[in-house]
Amino acid sequence: MAKQASVASVLGAALVLIVALLAAFPAECGAHRHRAAKPHGHKKAVHSIGVCNGVLGSNLPTPSDVVQLYKSKGIASMRIYAPETGILRALAGTGIGLVMDVPNENLTAMASSPPFAAAWVKANVQPYSSSSGVSFRYIAVGNEVVDSEGQKNILPAMKNLAGALAASGIGIKVSTALRFDAITNTFPPSNGVFSDPSFMGPVAAYLASTGAPLLVNVYPYFAYVDNPRDIQLGYATFQPGTTVRDDGNGLVYTNLFDAMVDSIYAALEDAGTPGVGVVVSESGWPSAGGFAATAENARRYNQGLIGHVGGGTPKKAGPLETYVFAMFNENQKTGLETEKHFGLFNPDKSPAYSISF
User: How far apart are CA 268 and CA 261, in angstroms?
Assistant: First the structure.
């Protein structure tokens, strides 16, 4: 979730922009939060925009009301962070695509026990995966796992889950969701590499073998708030006026989001897996609670994101599947006050600010 984009990823993204903007504006500036078989459910084209549905609130709508709001707004996809029976039942037959996480606390058991993976699939996927059921897009094994011991569980858990799905005749692709600081050397974007190749190299190779994309949470907001002196707010919020050239490949960037995403593609190329796709599994901007967290900045960023990702990035043209974080403001989120204000909507389903899909 948004709160999990730590200072480490912020600093990495901020460094990208500091160098980039110094290059772009020397006179002014010199003085970065989850296969062969056909998937069950509704077969649909790639969804460009989805929205993450968090549940850390005391006053959130019922699952049926949540799904109805997605439908009424034309939101094509949803991400949830754990199997939620009410949401899964409400999604059945709607055609709304779903990314569902295996919670981090389940990774040890799933990595070490194929029977646990089989039981997890039987309880959380099989009942909802018929042709008239839920349109699963991916299952993300873990979200922003940063400790080395936890990371050791990700690939074995992915393999056990994929095996359990295959044994059940269910063709849902399996991936994991990374925090952005899993990539480093991100300026210029063409220099991007994985921070820990011993962890990400095998994961990327596995994704290449299965045809699943890599999921990454990308938050320009955190880069901006870490260094607003050198990072242009407009560049971070899809506003015109800033251009940055990648001297490594000549590509030109007009927003930070594209630069961050293209550094992920570069890291995959460096790992020898250029065919692995990227899904932005979280991105957003808070509307209250802290520095630069205003309704207008959030509107500009999220509306800009919604309008932008259908065309891809300078490096990769075409729809970039992206999930806005989040559907609702959540009053039980911990951490900074901004964490409670990433929602596009209030718990009463009124818009936090004007937004369209």
Answer: 11
